[in-house]
Amino acid sequence: MEIKAKSIETFLADLASKSATPGGGSVAAVMGAQAAALVSMVCHLTLGKPKYAAVEEQMQALLEQAETLRHSLLAMIKADVEVFDCVMAAYSLAKETEEQKIYRSAAIQDALKAATEVPLACAKACAKAIALSQVAAEKGSITVISDAGVAVMAAYAGLKSAALNVYVNTGNLKDREFAQAKLAELEEVLKGAGLISEEVYQLVKHKL
Amino acid sequence: MEIKAKSIETFLADLASKSATPGGGSVAAVMGAQAAALVSMVCHLTLGKPKYAAVEEQMQALLEQAETLRHSLLAMIKADVEVFDCVMAAYSLAKETEEQKIYRSAAIQDALKAATEVPLACAKACAKAIALSQVAAEKGSITVISDAGVAVMAAYAGLKSAALNVYVNTGNLKDREFAQAKLAELEEVLKGAGLISEEVYQLVKHKL
Questions:
Q1: Which of A18, A69, A119, B94 is deepest in the core (most CB within 10 A)?
Q2: A160 at the B interface (CB within 8 A)?
């Protein structure tokens, strides 16, 4: 059964189990998806309210972005498990003959590249969720403003969590040029994210 | 259907919907439960490994604490919705006669007290999850150390998210003595949590 079809209770039990998947990569995507979902909720409960007529168009655009993001992040829950399984499968390839060793090594490196791209995409999506949470916190209805605050914390935790998986997988890459390029992309995404998240959180707290 | 029995996909869709529940309070509990589950996973993948024989007993104790915590936090996903619904139900009581007004006001205040206790308990459970993540990061198997890093980020986000709901509900309480006591408890829980979480995250990052 695909993870997204599992109940929350089963997902948490699977997470806690001896099995290496699902793990932190899926949790990062779930946190990001929760952030996007909360931004959508803030939009839904702001739209159509006379008091917020001035931001109606902006909220509609925000809702569309949040829903697209929620679906992307939902897909990443599964993608993380798939790339991890590929890495494990590559490591368990035969390594008796010289030819097998060469094939196995190449398969591991290919799998690690995919296992770098998925959490990097997740990190970027979470950074986007932080940006959307900021708009929700600034313009959303005061009655659901705390949900924008929860959204930004979930998105930030998702970003930092996804980053760990980028570090893990680039660490084992032999193609250092590729690894450095991906790490540079990640640093760009992380830059200022902590400060912005804290600012959004404080904005929400002061509006309560 | 109880939230924990819903699929992740459905939970996220419900979260994103026009309905005010589930909302940020449930997300806080889910994040805390994910943190506890990841600590359990680190324990499971450390126990029985010859290299980690020295921490076997400590990991066994950590696993028991993490599992208890996971189940407590799982129950809080539902509790958050229940107390929110009680607050809403109290607000919608009749307020025509003087007697009705008095009854309604008392019902709102009672509901708000419960709606303060639930996120405060969630905040305390998330703080406990931070402490357990720290042990997992310090003593757990290096092969799953990144999961301890994800756990601490999820727990911290859960803590800060639950705190927002304590602020919201204490803000509407007339019993200021009760409100101040709960806010003081919360501040005690929050104290140093950000610094410790960042330290645990950096410890994990340097072990990768």
A1: A119
A2: yes
